[in-house]
Each structure stands twice: as C-alpha cells, then as structure tokens.
Amino acid sequence: MSEFSLIDIIRRRCTSSRSDVVLGIGDDAALVEVPPGCELAVCTDTLVAGIHFPLGTTAFDIGWKSLAVNLSDLAAMGATPAWAVLALTLPTDDVQFVAGFADGFAALARMHKVALIGGDTTQGPLCISVTVHGLVPRGQAMRRDGARPGDLVFVSGTLGDAAAGLQYVSGHLRGQDSDLLKQRLNRPEPRVAGGLALRGLASACIDISDGLVADLGHVAKASGVAIEIDRWKLPTSFALQSCCTSALRTQLQLSGGDDYELAFTVPAEKIDAMNDALAGVDCAITCIGRVVEGEGVRVVDSDGNEISTLHGGWEHFS
Ligand code: ADP
Ligand code: MG
Asked: Most exposed of 116, 231, 243, 273 (fewest Cβ within 10 Å)?
C-alpha cells in the first residue's frame, strides 16, 4: 500500500463541508479563508505510542484522542475550532489501523465541524502530531496571564477519572465498573462549548492535560499570583469515588493528568454572568479555590493543613 493510498483512505473518511476551505488535501499546501476581525488560534499536540496512550489502545480511540487533546487547547483559549492538519508516522502500511484511526478522528471532527485540510504521512515508530486552527474575535482569547487576587478558581467536569482509567489499563487497579474511567482516558470530550461560553468572563483559562496542580501552576506563574485549592471541593465522579482509597483519589485528581477539563479563574463580579452563560451549555463547573497574592499553588485540606503535592504533573525529560 503506497503512502498516497493511505492518504486517500484518510481523505475519504474525513470529509467536511466547510465553505471556508478554499483548497483541502491534495496540493502542496491548503488554503483557508480567515474571517475579518478574527485571530487564528493555532496549537499542536503530539501523541507518542506507549507514552500518550497505552499500547493496546484501539485505532479509533487513538484517532479520537489525537484530535481531542488539540481541541481541548482551543477550548481553553475560547476559540471556535475550524481546521486541522495531521502528521502521521506509522510503523507499517496497516490499512485497518489507518481506517480505524481516521474514523475516530472523523467522528470527533464532525461533532465540532473541523475540516482536515492536510498533513504528512511517514514511516517510523507510531506517532501522531495534530495541529488545529481555531477562530477567536480579535483580542478576546482567554490567556493564562489574567488571573488576579480575589478571583475564584473553577474546573469543569470531574477530575482524576482518566488517571484512574490508566491505572486499570496498566493493571495497577483491578475490579469491575472501570468502563467509564477507561472511556475518560480514551475518548476525552474537549470542553469547546464551555470555553466559548467563558470568553469575556474568565480572567484566565487553561486545559488540564498534565495534572491540576501543574497546570494551575502555569496560570499562577503567568499571572504573577498564587492559587489556593480546597482539596475537599475537587469534583469527583461516582466511578472514581468507588474505585480507590481517598489518598490515591486525591493524588490522581491533583496530579494524574489527561483530564482535558478546563481550569479557569473568574472575578467575583462576573460569577452571575458566568452562571448565566453556562446555563445553556452541557458543562458542569465547580468552584475549587481562589486566587491570592504570592506565587505557586497550595492545596489545603478541610482542617486547614497544606497537602504536599510533591508529585507534580507529567513532564517530559524529567
Ligand atoms: P508534499 O510532498 O507536497 O509535501 P505530500 O505528498 O506529503 O505532499 O501529501 C500530499 C497531500 O496529502 C498534501 O496535500 C498533504 O497535505 C496531504 N496529506 C499527507 N498526509 C496526510 C495525512 N496524514 N492527513 C491528511 N492529509 C495528508
Ligand atoms: Mg509538495
């Protein structure tokens, strides 16, 4: 099977009807039309087999996740997803894998009206790199550097589920009822609608990919503030609650990673407007703490004692 036949499999499975794609897959570069008054939000995330997904992950799930982690970044910026580019490195010309991968990618792309407009296909150890482009009205993107003392800190959804799912997949946790947790690991649902609703309301926003404390640490540093998290407020799914001890649960929720939820800060006077904006959106949120003066992220327990979070988030090369 030639490189071009593989590209054709992908192209045929990832069709889209966006009218702003002037020229899609097939030429030296794609051409797209950026609407006037908009900025382009651009980001790339790479998934390496065995590092960003367990080796037994299905082709469909790998395709889905490779787009999901990128859409999560756009969600955190408050950008509307538009176009994607896919660099695929494959060990062999495995048609079944490519078809399954493309189906998973296409399933999520369709949900968010994302057009796959190009890419690159090479041979080597399995590795997927996706670049997405989103649109945001000029000057309105949510950044990491806007948190101010007095703002409240929120997260969407529940925390720690994907990290627990990984514990099941790797055999460190055993038992039934792990399907929901594994689903959260393999099919993250980027909070695109939530991110759009928060635009103009959140003072800072980030998506949680490396772990809550590590990612809020980026917000604290960029904003020049400290963040305090109340451990007992962390939103917890029933599935997570029933699968492990509270000590492990806390560790997974604070530093497990792969949540792909939004963590954001909101000034007190905008809380009502935020609740209104989120009312029509399927995106539950929980207040977990506050922004204060200082630096770094502190997690406190209900007795007021600080919890050590020595296990930071996931970091390559460390
Ligand atoms: P070039 O040699 O000009 O760099 P390629 O031969 O690599 O182009 O690719 C041919 C066309 O197929 C290009 O339009 C490219 O964007 C697209 N393409 C290649 N690989 C992929 C992929 N994995 N997914 C989507 N489009 C791809
Ligand atoms: Mg060329």
From this structure: 273
Residue nearest to atom 8 of ligand 1 (CA): 28
Nearest to 231 by CA among 304, 310, 292: 304
Model pLDDT for residues 179-202, shown as the tens digit of each residue: 999 999 999 999 999 999 999 999
Closest residue by Cα to residue 275 from 207, 205, 194: 194
User: In the structure encoding, which two tokens stand for residue 289, read together?
Assistant: 């703490």
User: What is 3-137's CATH number, 3.30.1330.10, 3.40.50.1260, 3.40.50.300, 3.40.30.10?
Assistant: 3.30.1330.10
Q: Is the CB of 98 under 6 A from ligand 1?
A: no
Distance 120 CA to ligand 1 centre (A): 5
The residue whose C-alpha atom lies closest to atom 13 belonging to ligand 1 is 26
Q: How far apart are CA 124 and CA 228, in angstroms?
A: 44
Atom of ligand 1 nearest to the CA of 88: 23
User: Would the pLDDT of 311 be above 60?
Assistant: no
pLDDT 10s digits, 8-29: 999 999 999 899 999 999 999 9
Predicted structure pTM score: 0.96
